[in-house]
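Quick one: structure tokens for this chain, please?
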Amino acid sequence: PKSSSRASTSAMLRAAKRVLGCASDGDAVATEEARWRFCCKRRRRFAGADLEAPAPGRGRRQPRLVDLNSAPLEQLQAVPGIGKSRAEQLVELRGKGTLASLYALTALPGVSAGSLQKIGKHAYVHPEKGLHGLDGAEDKDADLRLRCGRLLFGSWNVRNLGRKSLETNRARDVAAIVAEYDLIALLELRDVEVVDGLLQLLGKDRWAAALSSQVGTDHHKEVYGYLYRTAAVKLLNSQILDDADDRWVREPFLAHFKAAGGFDFVVAAVHIVWGKTIVERRKEVEALGKKLEKVKHWTGEGDIMLVGDFNLEPDDAAWSTARGAGWVPLLEDVDGLKSMVGDTHLYDNIWVHGKNTAGSEWLGVAGVIKFDQVLHFGGQKGRKEATKNAIKELSDHRPTWALFASDRDDDWSWSSVMPLFGKAGGF
């Protein structure tokens, strides 16, 4: 039997929507539609990356941002704020080691706060690289993202993380990884005490959390949690999805956020049951697809992100209903991308609507943080032993991540919040 505990909150009111707001050079733009066309045209002048919306579907997508650790010289030269001379200096700096953060560019001569912000609007550093950086650098990078209108979001199954981890290095390692984000959904928390401990490590003056009630069976209960930088996003509402028909062993946990730049969105975090057979997993995923199919007919918030541990590959047939409704995974099995430690499966993902979010606020870059290959887990006998230690000491799942434009919101013309919260919504 499932726990009968439910979080109950009032239906949320729609936050005032901001227009795109990226025509910042004094250009007179009369209407929102004209402003959107202007910004798209302006971004196309930047030859460093394809800034067009990525087409939904399977396979590789072109990023809209330049990876400063892997981009060739000619691509770096095209990034506003870099140019030929600075690009050559950057390549030389990379030769001395991996760039751990955008803020590391201050090591280059003449890189001011203004030029750093200009670069940050068109380039990024993989958040995994931040684990190589100095303590405190993640907060400087988060401040830079805020000024550049960028939001780093993801999810992570932390595998039975509980209060006992506060007595070991495990909680400290989790906090170090969480610190790379602006907002992250944590799955499989054992209790709320561990979250308070994580906030202590992260800094309660900068971080906050939203926790669900317990979900699961009488034999195994867990808690969902959203940890977020208070300067980056504001929590508007949260609650466990009503599941009167008992479709999920662990009901999804919903939260409505609004970024400092105006982008507002709903996140649904879920941990799909493993079950005795794959049939049980597929039933729960198919039920999610049916819910998403209903969402596409609503005239409300269009930016809905379904995140978590789905215990199924993104190309499994169980996702056909969700794909048919227009939802796409931001992580695909391209170049051997896997979310499970040991590179076995891509079970963790971020699903968004192909048009409303993937084609708009998403900046075309997403991935996982391979903490098992960055943090030290011993392994004198080789990678296989280190992998076992990483699973035992931290988690068998890697965190997912994606970058979004926090100063862009393309659904301002919709007049009401989707009826997602509360039983009256029928979701």
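DSSP finds ten helices and 15 strands in the chain.
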